[in-house]
Amino acid sequence: MKRQQDLWTPILNSMTEDLIREFVMAAHGNAARVAELLSAHPELRGVRYVDFNETALEAASHMGRRDIAHLLLEAGEPLILPAALMLGDLEAARGLLDAKPELIHSAGAHGIPLMFHAAISGNPVLADLLWERGNRIGLGAAVHAAVAWDQPEFFGWLQDHEAPLDAPDHEGNTPLQAAQQRGQTDWVERLQGQSDVGPES
Fold first, then answer.
1. Which InterPro entries does this UniProt record tie to the protein (predicted)?
2. Cβ count within 10 A of residue 171
3. Is the sign of the CA dihedral 94, 99, 102, 107 positive or negative?
4. Residue 189 and residue 113: Cα distance in Å, rounded?
5. Burial class of residue 23 in the structure, from the number of CB atoms within 10 Å of its CB (0-12 exposed, 13-18 middle, 19+ buried)
């Protein structure tokens, strides 16, 4: 009997890893599937997909999926700093940093800066919080987020703090190039109007 169980163990482990992968991948943009998987497998809450070194809540946070983040939190997943920032929850973010000051030097999944998550929210008060606590990195990434999620007020904060407006993203595109690809005409005009960002064809 034990031998038969041993033979099944790798298969069960593989199925579990496949399920975790599907769950975390769904958290990047498929709220319906996340809800379905949570209902069938509540044990998936907080589980980390090893190959990506990422949890579902971390995925929802850097993708700006507030709906998925709320699903996960309502299911009992503990709040994390990237999610609090992305959701624009100033009090929660401050509370997490008060409880663990070292979190100010952390990052989201894939090393995505905290300032990027704050930019998704559009609330510059969160940027002030990070800045005052000593996190002053990732401003270029935050410019990309502010443009992609159409957050002009946060963009203004970044300008005031001399954020680079031509920093490349993970695909090598500047914010202007990325805005052109997304068809964000207002942002294209705005970025082309900046003195340190030349026009792109």
1. Ankyrin_rpt-contain_sf
2. 8
3. negative
4. 27
5. buried
Find, among 80, 65, 85, the residue nearest to 130 by Cα. Answer: 85
Render pLDDT for 142-167 as a digit per residue (tens, 0 to 9).
999 999 999 999 999 999 999 999 99
How many structural domains are present in the chain? 2
Is it the case that residue 176 has pLDDT exceeding 80? yes
Same domain, 40 and 121: no
Instruction: Give CA torsion, residues 159, 164, 166, 168, to 10 deg.
Output: -130
Closest CA to 171 of 156, 186, 182, 184: 182
Nearest in space to 191 (alpha carbons), one of 127, 148, 161? 148
Are 53 and 74 in a shared domain?
yes
Give me the domain span that covers residue 153: 80-104+112-195
Residues 160, 89 within the same domain = yes
Residue 200 has pLDDT above 80, yes or no: no
Contact status, residue 122 vs residue 129, Cβ threshold 8 Å: no
